[in-house]
Structure to design on (481 residues):
């Protein structure tokens, strides 16, 4: 059975760039559920997502791709499975400067990777140009969890970087689908 | 999960008093939480703290999504959202002119008294708006 | 430049990294080095060095790699080096999931032979390649890719985003 729509989920902690990444890809203005952020200690941003981000990319012949972004903070964890339901793949965005990076990685990988069953790509933002130690560390941690997925240093304000994440995810989805097709 | 109340002590006490008045004036209220629009509990009538903080987070998501759908539908701001079932009602409404923005979530176990509940909650929000803006 | 095979890294100053990327450097054979890494040298994954220098040599597979083996990757190589090439990204996605034969991999990833060999060699040198003689029962075919659940959608999305 072929589908006429599929869904890509963006997740990660607050401030990692989910809303920005979706806005880069979406045809029209995204639906946002941004509210005033009162937890400036956690992240020094004026606004934060309380519900979800939603964007859409329309393709030819009435087909389309739905882009969903989860709210970052753990208190909104109840939204995660609702949004993750039927996602073809997940892009996990992390903040390379955040002191709790490893903790975030553990939480989101655990919540969304589905033990390697869900196609996944990890993007790390705010890394210095020639510094790959963070990418290396995250790759190592994921490998320890049995997750062998790409980890890419990105700046989601650059559309090319977001496109790279998407292209990589599409390759992951294709490889995953191939396994499903074998009897 | 730590709770970060964005209002100070005095304001929180004022808010608690308003919630208690609401409960006294309206039958069937089983729970009420005043929350920041980003999902932190300010104060509540709920004795189970875990439940209060979950209601706070969920209330904020619902308020935010309602606001988005109202905008999408071209009907401007969402004043309140009502979740109705045979056994009861959850009402989520914004406290006007609050800074930081606040939302009231009320749970009642008697759906037949919806009108009274909504009136009481609206009145509560108006009082909160007035007292907390001083 | 310093190479630390055990930790899959090499170290070089930014100017040298740039020259390596541009292909304007000839490397001499490695000598042992026992001091600590000097200031100003950036650490990069070994795969990048293997990838940047590998193209200069023959187009074939490294002599000790058996072309009839099934190949798999123990982890993704550095994404930066792959330069957004879809055949390479496909190869990585396929090979991190399971071991596949050379012919299969080339068909499924639509990767040309020279690039494929270059990639396999670079993975081998940087310690990411796992090869085994055993043949597995089911072999995915090119047809499988086209008739996937999301086949048409993925094609459409690539076109729409200019990734084709």
């Amino acid at each position: 059975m072929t589908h006429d729509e599929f869904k890509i989920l963006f997740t990660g902690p607050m401030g990692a760039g989910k809303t920005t990444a979706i806005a880069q890809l979406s045809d029209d203005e995204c639906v946002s559920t941004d509210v005033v952020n009162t937890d400036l200690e956690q992240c020094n941003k004026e606004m934060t997502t309380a519900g979800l981000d939603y964007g859409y990319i329309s393709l030819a012949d009435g087909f389309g791709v739905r882009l969903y972004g989860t709210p970052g903070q753990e208190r909104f964890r109840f939204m995660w499975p609702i949004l993750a339901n039927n996602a073809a793949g997940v892009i996990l965005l992390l903040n390379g400067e955040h002191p709790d990076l490893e903790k975030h990685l553990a939480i989101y990988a655990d919540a969304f990777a589905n033990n390697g069953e869900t196609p996944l790509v990890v993007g790390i933002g705010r890394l210095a140009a020639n510094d790959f130690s963070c990418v290396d560390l995250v790759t190592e941690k994921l490998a320890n969890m049995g997750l062998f997925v790409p980890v890419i240093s990105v700046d989601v304000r650059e559309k090319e970087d977001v496109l790279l994440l998407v292209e990589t995810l599409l390759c992951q989805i294709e490889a995953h689908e191939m396994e499903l097709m074998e009897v | 999960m730590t709770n970060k109340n964005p209002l100070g002590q005095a304001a929180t006490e004022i808010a608690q008093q308003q919630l208690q008045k609401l409960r006294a004036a309206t039958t069937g209220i089983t729970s009420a939480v005043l929350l920041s629009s980003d999902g932190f509990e300010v104060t509540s009538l709920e004795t189970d703290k875990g439940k209060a903080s979950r209601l706070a987070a969920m209330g904020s998501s619902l308020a935010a999504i309602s606001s988005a759908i109202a905008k999408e539908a071209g009907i401007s701001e969402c004043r309140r959202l009502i979740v109705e079932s045979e056994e009861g009602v959850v009402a989520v409404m914004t406290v006007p002119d609050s800074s930081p923005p606040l939302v009231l979530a009320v749970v009642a176990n008697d759906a037949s008294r919806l009108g009274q509940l909504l009136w009481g909650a609206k009145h509560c929000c108006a009082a909160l708006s007035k007292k907390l803006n001083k | 430049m310093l190479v630390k095979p055990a930790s899959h890294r090499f170290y070089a100053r930014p100017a040298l990294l740039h020259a390596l990327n541009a292909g304007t450097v000839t490397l001499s054979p490695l000598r042992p080095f026992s001091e600590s890494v000097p200031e100003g040298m950036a650490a990069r994954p070994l795969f990048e060095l293997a990838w940047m220098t590998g193209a200069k040599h023959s187009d074939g597979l490294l002599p000790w790699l058996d072309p009839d083996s099934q190949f798999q990757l123990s982890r993704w190589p550095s994404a930066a080096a792959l330069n957004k090439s879809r055949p390479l990204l496909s190869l990585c996605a396929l090979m991190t999931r399971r071991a596949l034969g050379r012919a299969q991999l080339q068909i499924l990833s639509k990767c040309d032979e020279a690039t494929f060999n270059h990639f396999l060699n670079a993975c081998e040198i940087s310690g990411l390649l796992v090869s085994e003689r055993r043949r597995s029962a089911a072999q995915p075919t090119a047809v499988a890719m086209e008739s996937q659940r999301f086949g048409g959608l993925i094609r459409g999305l690539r076109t729409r985003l200019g990734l084709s």
Remarks:
- The radius of gyration of chain A is 16 Å.
- The mean pLDDT of chain A is 91.
- Chain A has five helices and eight strands.
- Residues 43 and 88 of chain A are 29 Å apart (CA to CA).
